[in-house]
Each structure stands twice: as C-alpha cells, then as structure tokens.
Sequence to fold (230 residues):
Amino acid sequence: MNAANLPGRFLPPLISDTCLGPLNTLIPCTFLTASILFLWLGADSSTSIHLVACFYGFAAAGIQSLYNAVIWGFVSPAPSASKVGSSATSTTGSEHDEGVPVGRSASSASTVAKHGGAHRRTNSTAFNKEIETQSKHDAEASTSSSQPQEPNYDEGLARLRLAMVFVVIGIACLTGAPIGGKILDQGTNAKGEVKWTGAQVFAGTSVAIGGCFLVAARYAKMEGWESGRV
Fold:
C-alpha cells in the first residue's frame, strides 16, 4: 500500500496542475477510492487483498495530496466569463474615450498627423501629446493583458476554512477507529471469527458521502454545472 501511495502523491497533483484543477481531480479520486473499498468486499484471497491494497494506496494518496489545494481554491473567486467580457468592454470604451479609434496604432496616427492638412500642422504639439498618451495607454493595456493575474486571496478566510477542514478531519480521526472497532466486534462470532463486511461497507460509504459533498461544493463554487478548471 505504501509503495503504491508514492506515485499517487505525484500523478494526481500533476494532472491537477496541467489539466483539470484540484477539485476536478479530487472528485474522481474520492469516488475511485470508495469504489475500491467496496471491491474489498469481494477480496477472498491473499492476492486479491494485495491488489486492493495497492489500488487503494494509489487512489487515497490523491485525496491526501489535493485537499489542501482545494481549500485554497475556495478562497479565490470563481472564474466568470461575464467578468472577462465586462473588462474587455471597459477597455474598448476607454480606448474610444481617448479620442483615437480602436485598432489605430501610434505609427498610423502619426502618419495622419503628418498628412492631415494645415489645420493639424498648427496643432501638431497638442496632437503629438495625444498620440503619446494613447501609445502609453496601449502599452499599459497590452502589458496588463499579457501578464497572468494572480488570485486575490483573503488570508483570514483561508485560515478560517483550513481550520474548519482540519476540525472535521480531527473528528473523523478520533471517531473513525472506535466506530470501526465496534462494527468489527458486532461481526465477531462465538468462535472468534471476524467478519469485515460491516467495516468495509462503513469505510466505502463514508468516502462516497465525502465525494458527494465535494460535488455539491463544486456546484456552489461554479454556481451551476458549467465546465471549467477549478
């Protein structure tokens, strides 16, 4: 299990960073872990138990390595296409407000200034200042659009949500083992033979319920079932 846990620490985070995002990767890892726990019910030999242990170690490692990144993802605002459109509209509007049509470069504007007639020659100084202002504005807009915008994290909110998650994890660690032990005691017969069926169902059901909560969290984060990296 520990040997299979090692690649599970690297591959899911790599997929998260390059393709899907932490929450979109954590959800299938969670349901895969629950499925493997339910498959444990059918393991009746040493070989099958070893296979279940290996697959469980890989899938569970994805949960352990991604939940922290998911918490930070909920601190930043969700991506919204409407916000991108509104920012593009405001940029276009600001370009019109400067007095130079959209798409006209500084060189074309200087050409117009050169060949536009005598009335522009008399006001060449003011017109050149206008061109310089527009050029600076275009350069700043292109620089800001080319640089990736870092999410504005609320550190206080991040600490609060981290604490909330670890409180839930702590309660699960304190109560999970005693509950599992009690279930095993109930499944032990008079001969001392232990049946693991109850504990296996309890483990798989608990992880599956956690996956359902993650799906609900994604729905709340994206405000619907829209596709996107989150």
